[in-house]
Amino acid sequence: MKKAMLGAVVFVAVSGTWAMAQYYGGAYVNNKASTVGESYARGMGDVMRSQGMANLANSEAAINMTEAVRRDMENRDQWTDTYFQMRQKNREYRDAERRPRGTREDWIRIAQAGKPNRLSPSELDSVTGDIQWPKLLSTPTFATYRDQLEGLFAKRAAHGGADWNDTADIAALTKEMEAELKKLVSTVPPQEYMASKRFIESLAFENRQPAG
To answer: What is the DSSP string of 22-83?
Structure first.
């Protein structure tokens, strides 16, 4: 046997045939099978390894396909829900358009239904401007508002009307008085609260009407 070393590669001549082996730190490593059995075992190992890789790839592909199908179904369900919701809204809009429109008298009646009632002469004297307050609004909590409003309504009655500044002051005071009343909503009887609220609203409404 002849050996010839070139760098880290050793050529080994066996029976007149040259074979190449790698040289690692003084040891020779020959990757070729030494026997027919070893060659067969290596081949079977490569086949099994290839089958395993193929099965893994197929499994991942199946998972990806399943996820894609699931998302497609979710998208279809969402699109269907949106479609029917839009149909429902369109149907409601068309039904509303087909309803007969109210007459002028209907609109006047609706507007008057939401309008506060005017105060009776016993509640607001149109000659003197004297105001008879409900029980709850007669308490000390509302004394400041009462004094100012009584003065403004007395002036309004004496002059047969109120100027722009007095009208603005009455509007501001009734709004502040109602805000103060709201603070008591949970501490006073509901009937008294509602009666006082309606009284203030009616007082503010009287401010927008001609005096007398």
So the answer is: EEETTEEE--S-SSHHHHHHHHHHHHHHHHHHHHHHHHHHHHHHHHHHHHHHHHHHHHHHHH
Of residues 91 and 101, more confidence is placed in 91
Check if the beta carbon of residue 157 is closer than 8 Å to that of residue 126: yes
pLDDT at 4 over 70: no
Domain containing 200 equals: 119-206
Last residue of some domain: 45, 66, 100? Answer: 100
Q: Give me the pLDDT at residue 99, please.
A: 56
Considering its fold, how many domains does the chain have in total?
A: 3
pLDDT at site 15? 42
Spatial neighbors of 146 by CB under 8 A, at least 6 apart, are: 131, 133, 137, 138
